[in-house]
Amino acid sequence: MIDQSASRTARAAPRFRRPRLPVPPAAARALVLAAVFVCAACGLVYELELVALASYLVGDSVTQASIVLSVMVFAMGVGSLLAKRLSCAPAIGFAAVEIALALVGGLSVMALYASFAWFGQSRPAMAVFAFAIGVLIGAEIPLLMTLIQRIRRQDAGGAVADLFAADYVGALVGGLAFPFLLLPCYGQLTGALVTGAVNAVAGGAIVLWLFRGDITPRARARLLAANVVVLAVLAGAAWTAGPFERAARQAVYGGDVRLAEQTGVQEVVLTAAPLQLFLDGRLRVRGRDEYRYHEALVHPAMAGRHRRVLILGGGDGLALREVLRHREVGSVTLVDPDARLVALARDDPALARLNRHAYRDTRVRVAAADVFDWLRRERPPRPSGGYDVVLADLPDPGISRSAKLYSQEFYGLVRRTLAPGGRLAVHAGAPGADRRGFWTVDASVRAAGLRTADYWIGTGRGDEDWGFVLAAPLRAPALRLAADAPRPRSLSPAALASAARRAERAPLRDVPPSTLMHPRSG
């Protein structure tokens, strides 16, 4: 007797129909896995592009990376759910997803930079692009799973293992290609456009050639036209990338941008009228009044023995200029991670004129190295036992990548290099804008066993305000100017005393220090 229920189940179950393929099934599976590899590599490049650009444009790399990655991971879950609606036509669905991903991901950097340059902010655009790219990346794997099962049925565990193995290896290649190939060879903008083109070609080739038997001629023509349009848009964007970057830089930096260069460490931008130096989009030198900052950093620390001086950072040579004004200086060691910035400060006519050709002085020795690592390797010079003066002319403490350079451990390394009567001067941010951040730096210096004297120079308004910490191993150093020192243009004994009183009127002594395990910017 025939089991009627089994017969009904057999009739209801969908019948597996192998698609008409131009290659054997084994080769077709290999090609699909290759597409998974390429798509994963492109997807990770999009993520890294967004993280890098968000950190560069907005600052605080930890926060921006967390926002971008968390939004993208959430969106990938949404994309996986939405992919179920495309499973009835997986080849067309996958092609549509790749076309959209190539367009959105390829143009993402240009759109974010435009939003920042002309509208003054990029956070909303960053969130929108992170979500859109995440949704499209999340839809890829379910559709590819359906396509690979169409070629040859296998158990779900085996298919998932194959797909995710190709996906993870592709992510590895994309993650390595971004810093070592795309950034140095193409830059962020063109690198994203190249990635989008690769993405479009890989997705289109798999569907329009390998799975062409699953698609009607009209659908193939439409998909081919859409791919051609996307590639044309990306090519047009690449062709206009140069003028676009120049216009965007003009909008961001103002003045006449005469040099814009991505070094191995940071983006360096020099403007001519007025002379300004930007590092990673942040103003570091303003030619008309930079001397106020550099005199305040250098001259109080030089009030005492200063035969041997160590400058940490300061590749622009302006703190070095002030140090060399003191005739008693016997040697200066300058440590900066960006050798290209040092070369510009030495060779660029305007910048070299501003620092009075400080790098030509035979007393100067330059080390192109990570400041923290250099201090770990450095041993105090003999026979004196250390540097008389150490000047920390470093990026602002509020920048996440600079956190270790404002940590208790960092100042402990600095203390090891100081002579018994040596002094350390630290630029500790803008107390008018971030009072707690300033006192966090002070607490970190004191936690390393140094005694501090604090002073605030400026008006108390944002970038017009500079806070400094002067420190010594045995007792708090006196805030004064050397009697035989060259006279600063902007700093007098009375102005220095006033700066010390400003700091004394607003103390925050209960803040914890910043450490490598607990970095704090405020």
Automatic annotation (TrEMBL):
InterPro entries: MFS_trans_sf, PABS, PABS_CS, SAM-dependent_MTases_sf, Spermi_synthase
Active-site positions on this chain: 393 (proton acceptor)
Sequence ranges assigned to domain PABS in this UniProt record: 241-473
Subcellular location as annotated: Cell membrane
Record family assignment: Belongs to the spermidine/spermine synthase family.
Binding site for spermidine: 294, 316
Keywords: Cell membrane, Membrane, Polyamine biosynthesis, Spermidine biosynthesis, Transferase, Transmembrane, Transmembrane helix
Residues the entry annotates as binding S-methyl-5'-thioadenosine: 266, 336, 370-371
Biological function: Catalyzes the irreversible transfer of a propylamine group from the amino donor S-adenosylmethioninamine (decarboxy-AdoMet) to putrescine (1,4-diaminobutane) to yield spermidine.
Membrane-topology descriptor: Multi-pass membrane protein
SUPFAM superfamilies cross-referenced by the UniProt entry: MFS general substrate transporter (SSF103473), S-adenosyl-L-methionine-dependent methyltransferases (SSF53335)
One Pfam family it belongs to: Spermine_synth
Catalytic activity: S-adenosyl 3-(methylsulfanyl)propylamine + putrescine = S-methyl-5'-thioadenosine + spermidine + H(+)
GO CC aspect terms: plasma membrane
Assembly and binders: Homodimer or homotetramer.
Protein name (record): Polyamine aminopropyltransferase
Region (Disordered): 492-522
Taxonomic path: Bacteria, Bacillati, Actinomycetota, Actinomycetes, Kitasatosporales
Entry's transmembrane regions: 26-46, 66-83, 95-119, 125-148, 160-183, 189-211, 223-242
Enzyme Commission (EC) number: 2.5.1.16
Gene giving rise to this polypeptide: speE
Highest rank taxon of the organism: Bacteria
Taxonomic source organism: Actinacidiphila glaucinigra
